[in-house]
Design a protein that fits this description.
This protein is mostly helical and 247 residues long. The chain has one domain. 70% of the residues lie in helices and 7% in strands. The strands form 2 sheets. A two-stranded antiparallel ribbon has the order 1-2. Strands 3-4 form a two-stranded antiparallel ribbon.
């Protein structure tokens, strides 16, 4: 048995000219699962909740209070919370779904080789990049809505003196660097965990890989939380830009 490690996801088939990859299939399955779970939960709410409803209410209430502790009470939290919670829960479920037993056995014979139909969604940099762009662009929109387009543009481009021009250029570079740092943090950790797990299973397929799988499981939870928190921090900083620029 050969150990096949690929940075790019495997293309299972083409739908017209659109390549359908194994990470795309997994993301569709996870999205459909979350829609069904939360859709059915909201339609069957009870005055005296059961265990599942209690769990969801505790999860939503706890996460809302956490977002509120950073954004402050009011409309800011109400507007930001759905985005942050959705990103966290999607990334969390996508990361944990990798550990469902038996999924690696679901394969497709294509082009003379066997490829897995399911692969960790966050090991596809394309998916992580899209989520990162949503986070960063949302923060930029919030900043522009807070101080106005010209004042926000003046944060990066100013010709008052060479020092302020240089500092503005550094601010612009830091905004671009957010895309790289945020996306590579999530993608790198999940992809590295996937590779490490595959290597250990290939070398010693019984008890030795268990500690590494536990480490990967911990990383899956932590990285989903970190991604959501950094998104929240970026938006929070953008919403407070007016106070900073007025100082």
């Amino acid at each position: 048995m050969d150990l096949n490690i690929s940075l790019a996801p495997d293309v299972l088939f083409f739908l017209g000219g659109f390549p359908v990859t194994n990470t795309f299939i997994w993301s569709l399955v996870i999205s459909l699962f979350l829609i069904i779970v939360f859709g059915s939960a909201t339609r069957s709410l009870k005055l005296i909740p059961g265990k599942f409803q209690n769990f969801l209410e505790a999860l939503i209430e706890g996460s809302y209070e956490f977002v509120e502790s950073i954004m402050g009470p009011g409309k800011k939290t109400q507007r930001v919370y759905p985005l942050v919670f959705t990103m966290f829960f999607f990334a969390l479920v996508a990361n944990l779904a990798v550990y469902i037993p038996g999924q690696s056995a679901v394969t497709l014979y294509r082009g003379g080789e066997t490829v897995s139909i399911f692969r960790a969604v966050m090991s596809d940099y394309g998916m992580v990049l899209v989520m990162t762009l949503i986070s960063v662009i949302t923060a930029q929109v919030v900043a522009i809505a807070t101080v106005g387009p010209w004042k926000y543009l003046g944060k990066f481009i100013t010709f008052k003196n060479p020092l302020k021009f240089f500092l503005g250029l550094m601010e612009l570079i830091s905004e671009v660097a957010k895309i790289v740092s945020l996306s590579f943090r999530l993608f790198g950790n999940i992809f590295a965990g996937e590779v490490l797990g595959a290597v250990m299973l290939f070398l010693a397929p019984f008890f030795i890989p268990l500690p590494f799988m536990f480490l990967g499981l911990l990383t899956a939870v932590v990285q989903a939380f970190v991604f959501a928190v950094l998104t929240l921090v970026f938006i929070s900083m953008a919403s407070e830009l007016e106070e900073v620029t007025n100082e």
